[in-house]
Automatic annotation (TrEMBL), chains A, B:
EC class: lyase
The UniProt record lists the keyword Lyase: yes
Keyword Lyase attached: yes
Protein name per the record: Putative hydro-lyase ACFQ3U_05240
Matching Gene3D superfamilies: PSTPO5379-like, PSTPO5379-like domain
Species, as recorded: Leucobacter albus
Keywords noted in UniProt: Lyase
EC number: 4.2.1.-
Similarity section: Belongs to the D-glutamate cyclase family.
Top-level taxonomic group: Bacteria
InterPro entries according to UniProt: D-Glu_cyclase, Putative_hydro-lyase, UPF0317
Phylogenetic classification of the source organism: Bacteria, Bacillati, Actinomycetota, Actinomycetes, Micrococcales
NCBIfam families: PRK05463.1
Amino acid sequence: MTRIQATPVQLREAREARSVYRAGLVTPTSGVAHGLVQANLIAVPADWAYDVLLYAQRNPQACPVLEVLDAGATESLLAPGSDLRFDIPQYRVWRDGVLVGEPTDASAAWQEHPDLVSFLIGCSFTFEAGLVDAGIEIRHQTLGRNVPMYRTNRACAPAGRLSGELVVSMRPIPGDRVAEAVQISGRYPAVHGAPVHIGDPAGLGIEDIQAPEFGDAPEIRAGDVPVFWACGVTPQAAIMASKPPFALTHAPGYMFVTDVPDANYLV
Amino acid sequence: MTRIQATPVQLREAREARSVYRAGLVTPTSGVAHGLVQANLIAVPADWAYDVLLYAQRNPQACPVLEVLDAGATESLLAPGSDLRFDIPQYRVWRDGVLVGEPTDASAAWQEHPDLVSFLIGCSFTFEAGLVDAGIEIRHQTLGRNVPMYRTNRACAPAGRLSGELVVSMRPIPGDRVAEAVQISGRYPAVHGAPVHIGDPAGLGIEDIQAPEFGDAPEIRAGDVPVFWACGVTPQAAIMASKPPFALTHAPGYMFVTDVPDANYLV
């Protein structure tokens, strides 16, 4: 998959980002290492790995799997030298479907579950780079905020012991750029692809666009249309709904920054 | 995934094909139900399902998963009313990596392993329809033969207990149509996508292009270039190399015909 290599400048930025996150910096990663893939994390004990992989296979737009690490492994092929225990700015620890902690260092999870299987899942920040390059404003980046994410009323296809609703991210886009936003994101089918819904949030069962379940409230300006994409936080909704005994994820918006250029996922 | 529906004529053809295969007709399926997806089958006891799904995830060009059935299930969502025990023209039964039978009815496999998990994997016949529509001759169809398939010297990424080499299918294409063949097949990234190799078979470690491991020998004419695509028979090579106690597959070229139009996999 990785045919197109990162530039030295990109690589330096990605490695420095992972390094400062490892040292403890907590910040959303949207816009970091422009042009390199960022990934969602979900890690579960080996006993649950098939359910997660099958859930991803049955819901590929929300859960495009970029890499599955072997049980217990912590170095991603997408970022040689990385360590998933430390290199994400903030994590979430889930027990029986309940969020019980948001550590900045997740090494305790691997101590507790040496057979933890980590899944790296594509992130909409990949096509954001394409939108930015086309001169389409990514409002939450401009404002220095986290992207707003919402649980919807759309059920994902269940798999084994996992079920849950689709989670979406939303970007307000001026009406004259929406078509381009669709076309550009559609060229990344391996990373959420085209939007799942455009316009009225009620169509997804979202009651209050200003109250996202994850991330920060949006700023929607006159002439903007809300555009909704499938989101890699969807597995976290499945965790809440399905209550596996243990799971570790990234904190929404605080992603794993890889060394792999987005262009590898362009079609 | 199935937004674009089959036409009544296509549906009738697909259902009739499955029905005559169920009744015992043994014939390669290339060209059957033009415009509808055909699929490779690999089915393993539940204990091996994670290895197969992970192998597919790590080798997506060769093993694009279209559907994973629940353990023991035999009706595919891609073809309501179908039954995987009977609806493929010919099967292969593998024990400890050795081909031990080629039945036309596979119901004994589910009797022996009630927890059998079936994987349906994309097939190059999908983009063949696109090539035919563009006026590019599919030689093996013209000749009424099976497509030639070869084991290569390219290792797939291993997963759990599974490892093996990439298997490719080959179509001789006139030099002035090769670029189009690349572009057309490239629009189906979920179904093998663009070729993995064009030209000299030695580049894939293929010694004798006239002696394919699977399918029939090709007819290569003056001006033709051999064009190689990743092939859904790749899991069978992994079975041979990795020797799971039991596996059931289709016989190469004798596919599962679905009700789903190819166009659903176009990007």
